[in-house]
Specification:
The protein has a domain of 193 residues. The chain is built from 6 helices and 9 strands; from the N terminus they run αββαβαβαβββββαα. It is rod-shaped and about 160 Å long.
Amino acid sequence: MKSADQPVLSRMHILQFILISCTVLFLSSCSWKQIPVTTIHQDGRIDVFLETVSDSSFQAAHPITLDEVAVANVLRGVHTKEKSSMMLLIGKALLSTNLSETRTFYDDDIALLTPPITAALAQATQNQRVGFRLYHTDFSGQAGTDASKRETTSGYLAADSLSLHVTLTQYRYKPGKAESMQKMPRPLPDPDGLRDRDVTFVPEAALRPESRGDAGWFSGSGHRTFAVDYHLLAKLLAAPPRQVAPTAGIPGTQPVQPMPIPMAPTAVNDAEMQAFREQLKAMQKRLAEQDAELRELKKSSPSK
């Protein structure tokens, strides 16, 4: 029996050795493919870092010195809006959710992100992109120190000679299972917070023609990427608002009536004035005669 068990034990040892070897090789390959990351700024609200891009076709114009106003204008132009599909509209209507379009980054978010992103673009190399993560407190108002109690908005930026590429990879994403409301179906998994949202850029005229879709340097599945001409964007934002011309002939609109212009009094010639005076004298004479006749009638009537 001992001689019969030895081949079985040897086979088990061989299988264990192969399994351990494969595990070691897998872990080693993962460590080799780990993307180098350089931290630029990190605190409780934001993380800004440089990440090396392995794609050889990626060639950015880094390092580049941009004005913080230009970076802030690009971040301010990113907007999100709930998709208007029928099922989504029904679900949002039941939850009384506002479907209006909103800015992705508020003023305080832009004030936090702009300085480190500008500094990162000035330090990056041609094969690096700038990554950011913005942490929000949850809806209960608790501080976002615990990773399970905060929402994350993240993305990447990179610059070429003409534009600034911005990609949104997460929008207010909260890890873990979402708590379903009572008598509501379990929500479908949303890995990045963008499943039910459309991401746009305002004004759209500042986008380069080749970036009107989701294609881009580092756009993944479901990611939204824009190539913004920041020079043109500055000109569009500085231009005065266009005056709206009055509409005419459109149902439901009232035409704008011109304001009446007061006319200067016209001069009256001497002949007309003389005729008017004569008529006035004649009327006064007639009134005097009628008054005299009335007094005579009163005198001739018998007194009571």
